[in-house]
Write a structure and sequence with these properties.
This protein is mostly helical and about 100 residues long. The chain has three helices and no strands.
Amino acid sequence: MAHAAIELYEALKEAGTSDEKARMAAEAIEEIRDDDRFHRLDDRMERLENRIAKVENEVSDLKAEVKITKWMVAFVLAANMAIFWLLIKMALAHGG
């Protein structure tokens, strides 16, 4: 029996369970731990965590690009307003 199964066995014995039932429960737990489905689930969880990390990195990159785009739009808007102001000033100067 592995360490976890031994701990379960001892805990069940201490709780007053019969020796046979405690041993059977510990063996059942050990079979579940050794089941390939749990190892596959661990692999899937690891792949999912990697995908989440990748998405987080991509979102971080997108945030940086949006920040730059906002500054560019603000600059273009300011330049357009300056041009518009100059056009109005020129029109008024020529008797518009």
